[in-house]
């Protein structure tokens, strides 16, 4: 019996592998700076200064909102546009989000000079940590334009075939940050302001990496003057879940700071700071894996490749939970090592922190699931569900649970520290249960992916190995698929011939990277109808729309001239570091 082709996930798996290490490195570098800042401050300046840095986090979150929200939303919107082969729209999104981020940063810098010290006093409730908190915030406000621009550029680098540059930027900036951290904290009287200044300097000097992006031949997104309003609305809409997340994170941080300072005092703030930094350690690994989703899922969703989308998410979840299990096990076995790392050596604070960490780690599997849902629902343009997860996780549950839990714990004769850790576990679990119940009621019969198992409109969806002997089966499978859809053989033949010619060209000239090729035949949703043949491969970059045939009879790529005569239109995009060619018949 003759061999036939089916769809597999080899191309998507290759992209996950390609993006995985840069994604982890990017997340590692992003979180490592904050963690090492806290560790160095705790060991060099003491745990009071470490608590002051933690008290500053709500305002730090506010400063980062433009870069994170417009960067995340813009990258998702641009990825979906690239999936639809709209390079101009993606360029417009990039331009307007970058411009607004820079303007917002300048406003923060101008107003922060007057607000930093009063805010420090408010955050510390007028206590001894107020001055240290205000000093840290002063420098953060002044560095807002640099930090916002860096955060936005990282998102677009990941979405536009350059995850390695995004991770390189963070690695460079954090190495510089750590060097300045040690120098400024150890040998200058800047105190907490030195920690903040080292972060800003790291972000600034790391921008040299962006030169490689601007000069990259893979670059699909450029500066554009048109369509700013529509592009901003697209980016903002896609970034709403991130906006909700950051607003709720700000509210959560303010609320928890107040509750902990009120009931547990400065020592409680120290324990809370260690727990939050352990969560950042989790983000370094698990967040880097889940962070692959916005880079790839938006493009797959734009192409309506639901099979690839589901397969990608299944693999990401598997990797994430394996990494989470190792982290939980490590902290459960060695909580004292983590406590010592933050400069806490004296009892009873050492013993309390170690006990609290063991309880706190129980929340991580639920936290991971909620984080996955937020990233995934953002990428498929379901901002409502993504926002609901964020709102419940960071707003509705954590503050009342922490407040009531600490009061009950102290009323029962305890210190309230264990209750603080349990509040994280309970709030994450309640979020998981609430979203599951809401989804089942709102979308009965749907699983959590909220998309079909495959594109229901696809007439043919196959993967072939990039070998010459496999190409002979393509015409037969194309014609068979068309006949099943009541498309005449005369109409099917040009599609079959064009598919065979394009695949032959990919195999011969795709290079060593080209191992698998996806072919999908779908009805065109445009006004003129017709059929679309989508061809995806991971070979060397090649745009058939820019190819010029010189008439040389010995040049095999002249087959593209045949394709041009058979197809009504050809469009091309290089997205997720793959060639995506679409032929209209």
Helix content, binned percent: over 70%
Strand % is: 5-15%
For the largest beta-sheet, the strand count, sense and barrel status come to: 5 strands, antiparallel
Q: Which regions are unreliable across 5 or more consecutive residues at pLDDT < 50?
A: none
Annotation, overall tally of beta strands: 5
Radius of gyration: 26 Å
If strands are numbered along the chain, what order do they take across the biggest sheet? Answer: 1-2-3-5-4
Secondary-structure element string: HHHHHHHHHHHHHHHHHHHEHHEEHEE
The helix/strand class is mainly alpha
Number of helices: 22
Mean pLDDT: 82
Give the overall shape, derived from the CA principal axes: elongated
Termini separation comes to: 31 Å
Short descriptors:
585 residues; single chain; five-stranded antiparallel sheet; 22 helices; 6% strand; mainly alpha; elongated
Structure description:
The protein is mainly α and 585 residues long. It is built from 22 helices and 5 strands. The chain has helices at residues 10-45, 47-55, 57-83, 87-123, 130-142, 144-159, 163-187, 192-205, 210-214, 228-263, 265-290, 292-302, 306-333, 335-341, 349-360, 364-379, 383-396, 398-411, 417-442, 473-484, 489-509, 559-566; strands spanning 460-465, 516-523, 531-537, 569-575, 578-584. Strands 1-2-3-5-4 form a 5-stranded antiparallel sheet, sandwiched between helices. A hairpin with a 2-residue loop joins strand 4 and strand 5. Helix 1 (10-45) runs parallel beside helix 7, helix 10 runs parallel beside helix 18 and helix 11 (265-290) packs parallel to helix 15. The mean pLDDT is 82.
């Amino acid at each position: 019996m003759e061999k036939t082709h089916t769809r597999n996930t080899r191309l998507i798996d290759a992209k996950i592998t390609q993006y995985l290490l840069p994604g982890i490195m990017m997340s590692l570098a992003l979180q490592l700076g904050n963690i090492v800042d806290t560790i160095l401050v705790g060991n060099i300046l003491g745990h009071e200064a470490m608590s002051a840095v933690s008290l500053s986090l709500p305002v730090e979150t506010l400063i980062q909102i433009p870069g994170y929200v417009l960067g995340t939303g813009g990258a998702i919107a641009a990825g979906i546009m690239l999936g639809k082969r709209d390079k101009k729209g993606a360029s417009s999104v990039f331009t307007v989000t970058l411009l607004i981020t820079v303007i917002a940063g300048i406003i923060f810098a101008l107003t922060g000079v007057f607000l930093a010290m009063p805010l420090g006093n408010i955050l510390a409730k007028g206590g001894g940590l107020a001055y240290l908190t205000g000093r840290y915030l002063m420098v953060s406000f002044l560095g807002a334009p640099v930090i916002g621009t860096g955060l936005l550029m990282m998102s677009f680098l990941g979405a536009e075939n350059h995850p390695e540059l995004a991770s390189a930027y963070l690695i460079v900036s954090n190495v510089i940050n750590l060097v300045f951290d040690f120098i400024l904290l150890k040998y200058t009287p800047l105190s907490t302001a030195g920690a903040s200044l080292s972060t800003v300097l790291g972000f600034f000097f790391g921008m040299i990496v962006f030169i490689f992006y601007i000069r990259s031949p893979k670059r699909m997104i450029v500066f554009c003057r048109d369509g700013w309003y529509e592009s901003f609305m697209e980016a903002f809409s896609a970034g709403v879940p991130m906006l909700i997340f950051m607003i709720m994170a700000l509210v959560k941080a303010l609320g928890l700071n107040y509750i902990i300072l009120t009931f547990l005092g400065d020592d409680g703030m120290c324990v809370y700071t260690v727990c939050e930094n352990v969560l950042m350690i989790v983000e370094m690994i698990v967040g880097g894996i889940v962070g692959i989703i916005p880079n790839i899922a938006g493009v797959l969703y734009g192409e309506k490749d639901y099979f690839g989308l589901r397969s990608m998410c299944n693999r990401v979840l598997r990797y994430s939970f394996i990494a989470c299990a190792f982290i939980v096990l490590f902290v459960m076995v060695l909580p004292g090592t983590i406590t010592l790392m933050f400069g806490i050596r004296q009892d009873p604070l050492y013993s309390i922190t170690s006990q609290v960490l063991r309880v706190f780690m129980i929340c991580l599997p639920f936290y991971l699931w909620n984080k996955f849902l937020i990233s995934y629902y953002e990428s498929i343009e379901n901002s409502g569900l993504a926002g609901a997860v964020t709102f419940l996780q960071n707003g509705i549950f954590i503050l009342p649970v922490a407040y009531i839990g600490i009061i009950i714990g102290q009323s029962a004769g305890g210190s309230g520290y264990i209750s603080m850790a349990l509040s994280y576990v309970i709030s994450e679990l309640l979020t998981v249960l609430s979203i599951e119940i809401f989804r089942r009621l709102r979308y009965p019969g749907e699983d959590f992916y909220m998309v079909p198992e495959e594109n229901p409109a696809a007439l043919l969806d196959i993967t072939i190995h990039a070998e010459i002997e496999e190409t002979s089966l393509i015409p037969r499978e194309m014609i068979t698929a068309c006949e099943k859809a009541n498309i005449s053989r005369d109409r099917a033949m040009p599609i079959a011939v064009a598919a065979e010619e394009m695949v032959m060209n990919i195999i011969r000239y795709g290079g060593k990277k080209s191992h698998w090729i996806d072919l999908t035949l779908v009805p065109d949703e445009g006004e003129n109808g017709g059929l679309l043949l989508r061809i995806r491969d991971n070979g060397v970059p090649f745009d058939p729309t820019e190819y010029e045939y010189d008439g040389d009879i010995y040049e095999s790529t002249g087959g593209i001239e045949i394709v041009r005569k058979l197809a009504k239109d050809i469009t091309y995009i290089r997205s997720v570091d793959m060639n995506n060619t679409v032929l209209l018949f």
